[in-house]
Amino acid sequence: MSGTGPTKLSSPARVGQETFIAVAWGGVAITLLFILFRFMVRIKVFGRLQPDDGLVLFSWISLLINASLWHVGQDALYEIIAVSVGELYPPPPGFDRRTEGYLRKMVAVFVFFYTGLWSIKLAFLLFFKRLGQNVRHQDKLWWVVLSITFATYVTCIGTIQYRCFASSFEYIQIILVPVNLLRKVRLSVLKKLALGGLFSVTVVIMVFAITRAVVVTSYSHQPDQTWLYLWSGLEHAVCEWSFYRL
Fold first, then answer.
1. pTM confidence score
2. With 203 labelled, which of 48, 87, 102, 212 sits at a CA distance of 20 to 30 A?
3. Residue pair 165/213 in contact by the 8 Å Cβ criterion
4. What is the CA radius of gyration of the chain?
């Protein structure tokens, strides 16, 4: 009789279904408030929005689409986990069809997730470009970092673990732009410290990206899907939150 039981391929979900969806939609709602506030301030102060604002909005739309995909695919995700750990055996009728649909949604989730992250990175670069347009050699560094940004975006079609650390590496490249700007611009020490504090939001995002990569891979070679996607959604939301301060 033991040979007829289910084979456990993974561990139970670390994140409950209600918590998972609440975090996904909570991130969408909170970041929307920050974005609307940023847009209102920009229009009031400058009279119009900037190109980087468009990238931030596009990134938020990506976050919204992913939350919608998770809302539709949440039942399939937890059903797959239940079957893989032996909690649901034998698989219910239509399981193969639902699994196929879930995997298709995951392709879209990954595309929108990384596209959203890289949209924020491009928004940072556009913001720094405006600040350093009169600083010597800043333009050359900006183009180098921009090229690396596009290259790493294309490369992130690789494995999940590699994409996590590639995202962290890209933040390090972007930090070079404001660091070089602060080093060459002629300002008082107090003003440089103020600008440095403003630019430190990129460091916060980088630390969060590295934390996500470490956390989701520290438990096993096959990270729990709910844990992985929860941290991915949080990273995306943190990126949206951080940019409204610039």
1. 0.76
2. 48
3. yes
4. 21
